[in-house]
Amino acid sequence: MTAIAERTDCSTDVAALVPVVGGATTVPLVDGTQRVYANLDYAASAPALEAVAARVTEVLPLYASVHRGAGYLSQVSTALYESSRQSIARFVGAREDDVAIITRNTTDSLNLLAGVIPAGGRVLVLDVEHHANLLPWVHSRPGQGHSATIVPIARTVAQTLRALADELARQPYALVTVTGASNVTGEALPLDDVVAIAHAAGARVAVDGAQLVPHRGFSLTESGADYVAFSGHKTYAPFGAGALVGRRDWLDAGTPYLAGGGAVRDVRTDRTVWQPAPARHEAGSPNVIGAIALAEACEQLAALPSGALHEHEQVLRDRLVDGLSAIDGVEVARIWSDSTDPVGVVTFTVAGHDAGLVAAYLAAEHGIGVRDGRFCAHPLLAHLGASGGAIRASVGVGTTSEFVDRLVEALASYLADGARSSYEVVDGCWAVVADTRPLIAVHGLDHLAATAAAACGPALDD
Ligand SMILES: Cc1ncc(COP(=O)(O)O)c(C=O)c1O
Questions:
Q1: Domains of the chain by range and CATH?
Q2: Atom of ligand 1 at shortest distance to CA of 180?
Q3: Distance, CA of 346 to CA of 225 (rounded, Å)
């Protein structure tokens, strides 16, 4: 049996090819023992690849101001930044004339795109979306000329595609913006169909690639989509950079996202001449290290054997869904009865049990990291009948089948025998009563404990 067969039953050992930093980090349990952290929260934020951390360490001594510095290291840093832009664009299959803008994350990218929709343009969006791909369209800022229509999702993919086509036939749209993979269930509409329907109606397509790009990869050229937005911190490069990649014309003509140095060609007191994209939208000092980190993650993921990441996540997802579905009272959420090939993101509810309590138990008694709440997708959670919150487990390159089995067994044991500790709600969050675990007990960070405790304010409603 190969190493990966023991880990995930896959033919390629993805975890060995792209190891993550902290894959063996242990965390304290409430019973006083330590356990390797079962990170099942990749959809929220993924750990850095070891190669990404190494690259950052390698380039830090070369770091200097970019674009405007005359010094040697400024030129090196500028070259590194610009070649990172190319790697990022290549990773998402950018066309020759597409432009890649380095942003902070997917939210930033989609807000940027919302600012360059030609005046009067209508945007079509489904109520399945993460708030990052909903709010920028429905709440246009002063000076933005677009308006949005939200189409409710139907029971099936086929019906939802029909509803999209019907709305596109009703009035002209500039843009249809869709998730490449739901951050709640991992499902998506078939992108080829969305692109065909939208383009036939004269609308462009933007893809929220926050979950699709790191879990599956994506190509603008192959899909025919016009824009893609994604986040470095979900793509194994948590150094504060993300990207928006796509058609140049709107980005060259649109209102600059930020006004400031670097975005302009010439400034007089009575007029400003702006640069074309990407500089037009990257005012201020850019996140050079973040871009280099993201580019390295892109290179590493692109170098994996074709289909390996897909297979790795599929095997883990199937194992998770099979295990969860076998437990009485656990229901795995599904948006469409006829959707196929979801990414490695699984949301479930436990009948009669608060999602936050179950998540706290999994962490405190089993060292498992999952997410609970409404996942910044309130309309979708309402549609799924889970407005009270649900639990999400998501996998990635460092996930093992032991993590998945641990979750399933812990949940079964919770439902059979209950939790061993007592839990209470503190500041809106479930917590162990009289928790004795030091907040920061890993790797000599005890000196941060007081600061960390003070920083834990009331839970945000996500
Ligand atoms: C599908 C989807 N879109 C957008 C976002 C927003 O990403 P970010 O927080 O990196 O801006 C997320 C984050 O969870 C997401 O899952």
A1: 3-48+306-455 (3.90.1150.10), 52-302 (3.40.640.10)
A2: 1
A3: 26
Report which of 227, 204, 225 is spatially closest to residue 112, judged by C-alpha positions. Answer: 227
Alpha carbons within 13 angstroms on the beta-carbon side of residue 212 total: 26
Cα–Cα distance measured from residue 268 to residue 141, given in angstroms and rounded to the nearest whole number: 26
Q: Is 109 in the pocket of ligand 1 (CB under 6 A)?
A: no
Tokens linked to 131: 């708030």
Under DSSP, the state recorded for 49 is: B
Q: Does the pLDDT at position 351 exceed 60?
A: yes
Residues in the chain: 462
Nearest atom in ligand 1 to 231's CA = 10
pLDDT digits (tens, 9 = 90+) for 300-310: 999 999 999 99
Query: Tokens 């991992």, residue?
Result: 186
Angle between helices 157-170 and 191-200 (to 10 degrees): 20
Alpha-carbon distance of 299 to 318, in angstroms, equals 27
pLDDT tens string 146-161: 889 999 999 999 999 9
- The CA angle 98-102-104, to the nearest 5 degrees, is 140
Question: Angle CA(115)–CA(116)–CA(117) in degrees, nearest 5?
Answer: 100
- For the Cβ of 160 lying below 6 angstroms from any atom of ligand 1, the answer is no
Separation between Cα atoms, residue 255 and residue 274, nearest integer Å = 9
What are the backbone dihedrals phi and psi of residue 428, each rounded to the nearest 5 degrees, phi first? 85, 5
